[in-house]
Amino acid sequence: MPHPLAPQLPDAGDPNALAAQVWPEGAARIDGALVVGGASLPAIAAEHGTPFLLVDEAIVRGRARRIRESFEAAFAAHGGSGVDVYYAGKALLTAEVVRWMREEGLRIDVCTGGELALALAAGAPAEHLGFHGNNKGEAAIERGVAAGVGTVVLDSPIEVERVAAAAERAGRVQRVRLRISVGVHASTHEFLATSHEDQKFGIAIEDAPALAARIRELPSLELVGLHTHIGSQIFDHEGFAESARRMLALHAELGEAAGAPLPELNLGGGFGIAYTAADSPEPIEAIADRLAASVRARCDELGIPVPRIAIEPGRWIVGPAGVTAYEVGTVKPVRVEGGERRYVSVDGGMSDNARPALYGAQYSARLANRSSDAEAVLVRVAGHHCESGDIVVDAEWLPADVAPGDLLAVATTGAYCHSLASNYNLTPRPPVLAVRDGAVRTLVRRETIDDLLARDAGIAADAQRAREDQA
Q: What is the mean pLDDT of residues 48-58?
């Protein structure tokens, strides 16, 4: 029977078990300790401290390769003219991640000047970068265009003029896509749906022809296609297929107006993953095949060739490869209507995983330093921040003997946890570590208290005055 305080949870079962669809492939217990990528989490904690985010490189690479090959094969089977896969860097962007994506045949999608700078510094070819965002900023546009980014996604009429001016100053013709708010309401959280009418992204379909005509008037711009993105954490193909149908009608209209088909169509990303045992996303191969079939059927209906397709997966590639480990600090029973809830507080929280506080994201947790024969009890994993909404895992079954000093692992944290991390309550951000064949290395070092104090101008001024007084 479901617990009255957590009806969404399945029956407790074994609180030591690792659900295959949630935990990284190959994760296991050895003498009770949780092992990921061949490395023991307790051993990593002993060397690096807690909290830490561990990413399995082999899983990231494998999933990048799998989604690229799935879409390439699907569109080839349905008569497509090729697929470009852009890794959505906002999910997790480090220099090593950029290198992994390049080596697996993916391009990189960036949406700020900072992401652009990191991708370029990490060696990504500028021509393989896509640059989008609803307010990129004039300085970032200048840098991107001057560097030679492959495509800029235009999000507003103002950006048309800004990018055109930047390209003219750089003495080049900039390839651009026009982002369309296609009106498909994705089945996801309101804050993750990005293509309904009343929100900040894109151009309405009815406004696109006039704006496309303006782009074509400007000699420093080349309109190569359209772009859309209907949201994130979407579990099946239906929303993507409907979005493609609507986009292709506009694609055909704009091609007819120009006297030649647009060569490309970017259908965005948003492919969902399992965060809990209750989640069951459609396999990516099935999504790719059904989407490709839908695109081909719609193109035949409209009498146009299948364009070159682009997609932008991020979470799907890195999310399942990540595990965050914390140390338990306090355990406290709280009496509530319907029973008792046990609060397990850890040494991190919303500063390293803002998603539960932002939109109620669900996660799964397990003891990582040991297994236990104790009965399963309902717990809520809380962070150490001064906010009642600082919840890491809303509801989970853990052994009743969970205690201070235990190591707790939270699964599927590879996407958006590091990217959204903050210094709330002056908490240093944890490191990002990578594991490959049991060997662990640092991708992003742990932030320190000294790092935080160094940015405070008042403290720096006090230190300078103290040095002058001693001189």
A: 98
Contact predicate 244/288, CB 8 Å: no
Tokens of 356: 């539960």
Q: At 14, phi and psi to the nearest 5?
A: -90, 115
Q: What is the DSSP string of 402-467?
A: --TT-EEEEES-SSSTTTT---GGGPPPPPEEEEETTEEEEEEPPP-HHHHHHT-HHHHHHHHHHH
Tell me, yes or no, if 417 is annotated catalytic. Answer: no
Return the H-helix or E-strand segment holding 129: strand 129-131
The structure tokens listed for 48 are 């690096």
d(CA 208, CA 334): 55
Strand, helix or coil for residue 197? coil
- Write out the E strands in 156-296: 174-181, 203-204, 221-227, 264-266
Give the strand pairing for 174-181 and 129-131: unpaired
The model carries a pTM of 0.94
Distance CA 209, CA 309 (A): 21
Give me the catalytic one of 111, 299, 386, 417.
386
- Give the CB-side neighbour count of residue 393, counting CA atoms within 13 A: 30
Neighbours of 57 (CB within 10 A): 19
DSSP letter, residue 151? E
Which token pair is 372? Answer: 């236990």
338, two tokens: 């319907």
Cβ–Cβ under 8 Å, residues 301 and 29: no
Q: Judge whether residue 183 has pLDDT over 90.
A: no
Can you read off the two tokens belonging to residue 322? 């990540």
Q: How confident is the model at residue 466 (pLDDT cuts 50, 70, 90)?
A: confident
